[in-house]
What we know:
Elements: H1 2-6, H2 25-50, E1 56-57, H3 64-83, H4 95-98, H5 101-133, E2 138-139, H6 141-164, H7 168-189, H8 208-242, H9 244-247, H10 252-271, H11 278-297, H12 299-302, H13 308-330
Amino acid sequence: MMHxxxxxxxxxxxxxxxxxxxxxxxxxxxxxxxxxxxAFGLAAVVGLAFGWGTxxxxxxxxxxxxxASVVAAVAAFVTFWAAYRAPEPPPGxxxxxxxxxxxxxxxxxxxxxxxxxxxxxxxVVAFFLAxxxxxxxxxxxxxxxxxxxLAAGLAGYYAYxxxxxxxxxxxxxxxxxxxxxxxxxxxxxAPNPYWWQIHFSSLGTTGGASAAxxxxxxTLAGLVMVCLADFVATDFWRLQQAQGERWSAVKxxxxxxIIAGIGLMLAGVGLFKADVYVGLHRLSAAGMAVLFIGLxxxxxxxxxxxxxxFFAFSYGLVGLIFLGLWLWHRL
Length: 331
């Protein structure tokens, strides 16, 4: 829905694809299959060594789910890293001015890490559900190797295809999945089950793995949002190149700067724990809210070509934020 609002159907031929220098889909698919085979083989060896001579449960301590989720995360990280290429600079912009080497390295590392985290969480959920459906089932050595290899192979295959054709839409989807999964993991494992009676940031103050997961999720999500700013900016620049008259009024650099600023503020919320760096944590949270509200308020001036439905949705979202803030103080 949001995709159709931002990129109207009246211009299907100009839909921008913010990707790396193009490799043919056939070659990309072949490389992804090779990645699947390599990840499967290496992970199967790990699974074979892990379950040698024993019966191993699907989930729990010393289980197939534990080793498979870890190797799936490693496979996703490596294959994404190998496949990903930074988006091309807009026409007329020097490559080194568009994204310095340090920024490219950070972008690649952050994106690879969140795809590894997604693979880890999905593998954990899959083996948990399998154990729930097959109570008491244990796997022999060869079955352990096969399931471990399959988890790593699928993770590597998907991560390679995603990294080889990364777009703003795919990146925003991965970011949403990663943020929700990380936050839910922190909620489930929080030592204090009544954290919600305090505030959301209290998840990062409980200590232990739960707090570390919450803070790391927000920090990485913020860094990925900075990466997203480049993808969004390049999309707009390509639209300007293809349909200059319609999109020429878009303030691309301002949008890129605001989105990157929101990402940095979100990363600050995770970096500065609410119970240790109180002032910096509140400043980051407030700065993120101010930048977002400012972006929406100036949306008609920044991107006048967006549809009325998109403007209405954005204004309604800000209205809900203010309503929630009023209810929080009122109740």
